[in-house]
Amino acid sequence: MILGDVQSLPYRVVAILIAITVHEFAHAWTADRLGDPTPRAQGRLSLNPLVHLDPMGSLLLLVAGFGWAKPVQVNPGYFPNWRQGMMVVAAAGPLSNILLLFLVGAILQVQGMSAASILGRFAFYVLLYNAVLAAFNMLPIPPLDGSRILGGLLPPEQAAAYERLAHYGPLVLLVLIMLPWISPELNLLGRVMFPAIRWLVALAYRGFG
To answer: Active-site residue 185, yes or no?
Structure first.
């Protein structure tokens, strides 16, 4: 996951595009199904990667191993139950990455594909980046999906108190992302995420290697 790794760069770029596109499309599709026309009106109900990319988030995903795409805007006023609707829309993104992860893993196991082959290397990065996006977005830090899922699970009073802290979320997230650049020992995000990432990849395809 280092930009200087030129040989793997094409595999990683395409894998990132796939993971991000599936993730954001899942948000848009779920909101659309729940009655919100906003994602469709803004052109986000699409499998075209270009409509979902955030330049900085994509670069960080490539270089640092975690990042983000352009958020899908939704209007919870269209949902029958706005708290439940926001939680379901938020969960759709990470869930879509996990489903794709297991689909690719199942194909690899059926085909008996070697990690040394071209398709095998590409498939490995598809597994990896879908696991990365799922794990990163499940963190309960606003504006990540995990914060909206947690907000939907909390009782209304606690959810309102949690929401009042949301505007600090991006700053907290930025600090956590920057800490490893100061010292590898401060890689708190990595300590939380990497075990989950390894577990997801291994679970999707135990024989890969």
So the answer is: no
CB 68 within 8 A of CB 57: yes
Round to whole Å and give the CA distance between 41 and 60.
28
Under DSSP, the state recorded for 70 is P
pLDDT tens profile 52-106: 988 887 777 667 666 678 899 999 999 999 999 999 999 999 999 999 999 998 8
List the alpha helices (DSSP H) in the chain: 9-33, 38-41, 55-63, 82-111, 118-137, 145-153, 156-164, 169-182, 188-204
pTM: 0.89
**pLDDT of 145-186, one tens digit each?**
999 999 999 999 999 999 888 889 989 988 998 898 888 888
> DSSP state, 113?
-
Give yes or no for a contact between 138 and 146, defined as CB atoms under 8 angstroms apart. Answer: yes
How far is residue 54's CA from residue 76's CA, in Å, rounded to a whole number? 23
- Of the candidates 8, 17, 124, the one whose C-alpha atom is nearest the C-alpha of residue 67 is 17
Whether residue 87 contacts residue 71, with contact meaning beta carbons closer than 8 Å, is answered with no
Q: Which residue has the tokens 């191993």?
A: 65
Give the closest residue to 203 by CA, choosing from 61, 136, 106.
106
SS3 (DSSP) at 155:
coil
